[in-house]
Amino acid sequence: SSSSSAPTLTSCVSSAVPTMSITQSSYNFTPDENDRFYESKATLIATEILESELKGKVDEKWVAEWADSGDKFEALSKDIADKIKAKCIAKLNIPRYKIVVQVTIGQMKDQGVTITSRSLWDTATDNYATARFRNQRIWSSAIVFALHTD
């Protein structure tokens, strides 16, 4: 006689119910309070660099020959932007942010100027800071954009 063993209720239940484990992400997509971009800190950095790079360094000859000195002012504005960006990265401790700096330099000629920037960003994490410099000959504006990368 053949003996067939029927499965017990316990073995049916235990093999029919799969074990499911749920893993939740431990990665935080928003910056911690200490890792946020603070406009006031970036404004201080940009103001300090604008003043140190422009105060007393742009003479009347440069301004009088503005059309011929365009390359000088272009190189100067790029250098200032690079210095602001490097110092913001070094001092602000915000590794999950992309920093973009725009520096504009113009002549004081009784003319108005408007600098506008538009971007699509997350208002909860992204921000910007501005700084200005002005003397009798020139004006300058620096905008530091901080974009959270996660």
What attributes does this structure have?
150 residues, alpha+beta, Ribosomal protein S3 C-terminal domain, rod-shaped, Tctex-1-like_sf, Tctex-1-like
Question: Can you identify the CATH superfamily?
Answer: Tctex-1
CATH uppermost class: Alpha Beta
Briefly note the structural class of the backbone.
alpha+beta
User: Helices and strands, in N-to-C order?
Assistant: HHHHEEE
**Helical content class:** 25-40%
Task: Using the coordinates shown, work out and report the CATH topology.
Answer: Ribosomal protein S3 C-terminal domain
> Any guess at the CATH architecture?
2-Layer Sandwich
Q: How does the major sheet shape up?
A: 3 strands, antiparallel
Q: What gross morphology would you assign?
A: rod-shaped
Radius of gyration, rounded?
29 Å
**Mean pLDDT value:** 85
Low-confidence stretches: none
What's the number of helices? Answer: 4
Query: Strand sequence of the main sheet, in spatial order?
Result: 1-3-2
Distance between the termini: 70 Å
How many β-strands, per DSSP?
3
Whole-number count of domains:
1
Measured by DSSP, the beta-strand proportion falls in 15-25%
Pfam families: Tctex-1
InterPro entries: Tctex-1-like, Tctex-1-like_sf
Overview of the molecule:
The chain has 150 residues and is an alpha+beta fold. The chain has one domain (37-148): Tctex-1 (Ribosomal protein S3 C-terminal domain). 35% of the residues lie in helices and 20% in strands. The chain has helices spanning 9-16, 39-54, 60-64, 70-92, and strands at 97-107, 127-134, 138-148. It has a three-stranded antiparallel sheet with strand order 1-3-2. Strand 2 (127-134) and strand 3 (138-148) form a beta hairpin. It is rod-shaped, with a radius of gyration of 29 Å. The mean pLDDT is 85.
